[in-house]
# Entry
Amino acid sequence: MRILIAEDETAISGFLKEGLEEEGFAVDIAGNGRRAIEMAIENIDEYDIFLLDWMLPGMSGIEICRNIRKINKTVPIIFLTAKDTVDDTVFALEAGANDFLKKPFAFVELLARINVLLRNKLGEQTTFETEGISLNTEVHQVLKYGKPVDLTQKEFALLEYLLRNKGYVCRRTRIIEKIWDIHFDKDTSVIDVFINSLRKKLDVPGHDSFIQTIRGVGYRINNKT
# Structure
């Protein structure tokens, strides 16, 4: 899952980036309104959620929200702001926001609100399965033939992405965009390390890997039960 944070206070954006990356999200930061809307428009299909500060240099969060809504009606948007009146909340919601969180806020509350919006966006499905492997996003658990498997945050996020797209080829560049930070740029070799780790933890010895390599393109989990 990929998040764009539009926030001009570096202490806040840095704290959010660190916390969200620990939870398995890929995070981009825009320090002013103009940069935020440029990134949003250029990569509108890449972002799963937007966190917008209200008062930003260059363009306000409200303006960014309205512009995003012109090209994407459903992507979740949360305002993070010191504004605290009922009128402010209503104004933000009418501009197209899904939620409104007043500063200062607890990170655990923000994370809970993000997860609720993402569940609503992705639908009610929380369990994904293939060939004896089951992943549950609600309890953050992976089972191999009924036995829990310990995965890192990135391993879990990668497996979830592959399972959500079961039967389809997941291109390497797309995986990097969805699971890792944009700073990896064109280098997608890091994916191989995590694919190999998933195979070691989840494959059955003596059987073909459940993750199929599509040489020069990416990876696929075949559409089997």
Notes: The radius of gyration is 19 Å.
